[in-house]
């Protein structure tokens, strides 16, 4: 279920004592509100006090509340606890009040663990980015994460985007280590946007601003693998990868002949089984597959019936695909949606992870929890889907890549 942000929602869901501390931390005092006499979820006096503030103050408060809202969910709270560990605080669960709900816990972390909260925002951002481009031909070297290197990476990205697209003149890079993967978050300036807003007098007026957009490098030294998230043309993605290798690893990347990082065609074979080990209590199935007929630009999507526990992707293909007209051998499987169900076991939360893998080098798995990613990658390699370190001679070219 999607969640929609609103200030009244946050005011209702966060306990009054934390709201009072929130406004005081921002420098607004008690807003003239008798907090001790205010009932929980009695938000009218707070809304009235906020409505009397300047537009700049309202925007500042809304921005911080939106951050609290974003982490007031299961994945957000998981990011907060992970962020605390990465800040050296392994006892957050012992000090965070148990009686608080998700909104209260998120606000408590904002108030009491600001550094962990900031790291959690980065972690949570990763978990909501999809379609990473992966290449496996980088040298297996420890990356340089120094301030000087970050500045060099900022300057290189800014130079490329300014020259090629006329944006990105200013860029900021932040680094986050997560498991074996080191993330470099780049935030270059986007194009100027002109919008119509209400001014301090409540009148419509033109307003100009320049937001940033995200480019994320996820580098795993042990595999020499780099995954890139960037909403940019493919030619610029390769340039960014070259910039990363030069700035962070001190290495020049040669021309990339994109061998497939992922191979999916064998999954259409009904005899292929997604077998797992008993010590990893899992249920795994394919919920969707895209087939591309040879020598055709057409695409065929097959999807199981989610309400039928006995359904499978191979049964769906058999019942829905006219194999007299299009035998399976005449179509490539080049996009697959996997569903991993993590069954209860000691030391691991149960849950479900759904992600897409696209031939030749795209995957939306990267944002999941590291311990889940590690387990999933184990099986993607075993099932010869993730071809990192494998020979790729003879791989066919599908008619439509998910780049």
Tell me about this structure.
- With 403 residues, the protein is α+β, with helices and mostly antiparallel strands.
- Helices cover 34% and strands 22% of the residues.
- It is built from twelve helices and eleven strands.
- It has helices at 7-13, 16-25, 44-51, 55-70, 74-86, 92-95, 102-112, 114-126, 147-165, 234-249, 313-320, 370-382, and strands at residues 132-135, 171-178, 181-198, 204-212, 215-220, 225-229, 282-293, 300-303, 331-342, 351-358, 362-363.
- Strands 1, 2, 3, 4, 5, 6, 7, 8, 9, 10 and 11 form an eleven-stranded antiparallel β-sheet that branches.
- α2 runs parallel beside α7 and α7 (102-112) crosses α8.
- The longest helix has 19 residues, at 147-165.
- It starts with 6 loop residues before the first helix and ends in a 21-residue tail after the last helix.
- Mean pLDDT is 88; it is low at 390-403.
Mean pLDDT: 88
Helix content: 25-40%
Percent of residues in β-strands: 15-25%
- Major sheet summary line: 11 strands, antiparallel
Task: Enumerate how many helices there are, as a single number.
Answer: 12
| Net shape | globular
| Amino- and carboxy-terminal Cα gap | 28 Å
Structural class comes to alpha+beta
Low-confidence stretches: 390-403
Number of distinct beta strands? 11
Order of helices and strands: HHHHHHHHEHEEEEEHEEHEEEH
What integer value in Å does the Rg equal?
A: 25 Å
Q: Can you lay out the helices and strands and say which pair or pack?
A:
Blueprint: H1 7-13, H2 16-25, H3 44-51, H4 55-70, H5 74-86, H6 92-95, H7 102-112, H8 114-126, E1 132-135, H9 147-165, E2 171-178, E3 181-198, E4 204-212, E5 215-220, E6 225-229, H10 234-249, E7 282-293, E8 300-303, H11 313-320, E9 331-342, E10 351-358, E11 362-363, H12 370-382
Antiparallel strand pairs: 1-6, 1-11, 2-3, 3-4, 3-5, 5-6, 7-8, 7-9, 9-10, 10-11
Helix pairs in contact: 2-7, 5-7, 5-8, 7-8, 9-10
